[in-house]
């Protein structure tokens, strides 16, 4: 029989006014296992609504870290951001009841359906940028845009809709300079995050540029044999468009990637201007119409699933700064 979490009271209220109540959810399957959490597909026993429940391990994350994410999520409502529906607490975890994106992760979706074109890549990235436009208008930087946090659902007409998930690293930016910790793989991290410099809203645009490169080619632009070398490539802006990987990809698509992959944060365009780029607009000419090769994405997904999730904090930053200074 399925576990029943109905014994839990709703305790992580984050300022909401309604009184505590019982939750009654039956677990059906594992969806995603993350660094600090497990996400499970669940059915609500009374309403029969299928949801995703993210269980955050209490031993790995403090309550104040969880409530920081919740305080942001309760304020947000956008068609391209996964919605928080409710919260509860068990003896071992904080649980977030989330809207279910039933088509899973974007890269898995792409590989399973095939027929990837530039038009589709532009549509997926447009969805992500619309979510970021909403967040940035609220002065919120996501700071963890990566494949695992891009989920897919189908709309009423059966078309894919990309939703941005996991605001665990998101931060409300104010006048104070915020330096974000470098956690996990640095593959999608901006140069300022790698170097321990203040992040900005445009830090998310760098990650979108990396994500676009990955979708177009099935390869990672800065990845090297170690976290240190990957970070060094990021800070040197050491990437290219290999002919074998970008055969059939339009110049407009490459230009869009280069527009976002700029070392200086101030030179990256704000999201609003990105959304006006011709390559992103539906039905625009200038895109290649042939199907993109997705065979490399299979290896990319497999590597991301099985790689050790290292936490390169101070050591990597010291290494990068010493290497960069030695070249001056």
Automatic annotation (TrEMBL):
Short name of any one Pfam family annotated for the protein: Pkinase
Q: Which UniProt keywords apply?
A: ATP-binding, Kinase, Nucleotide-binding, Serine/threonine-protein kinase, Transferase
> Where does the record place the Protein kinase domain?
25-280
For this entry, list what GO says about its biological process: intracellular signal transduction; positive regulation of apoptotic process
Of the GO CC terms on this record, one is: nucleus
GO MF: ATP binding; protein serine/threonine kinase activity
Q: Which InterPro entries match?
A: Kinase-like_dom_sf (IPR011009), Prot_kinase_dom (IPR000719), Ser/Thr_kinase_AS (IPR008271)
Tell me which PANTHER family the record gives.
SERINE/THREONINE-PROTEIN KINASE 17, TRIO RHO GUANINE NUCLEOTIDE EXCHANGE FACTOR
Protein name per UniProt:
Protein kinase domain-containing protein
According to the entry, what is the taxonomic lineage of the organism? Eukaryota, Metazoa, Chordata, Craniata, Vertebrata
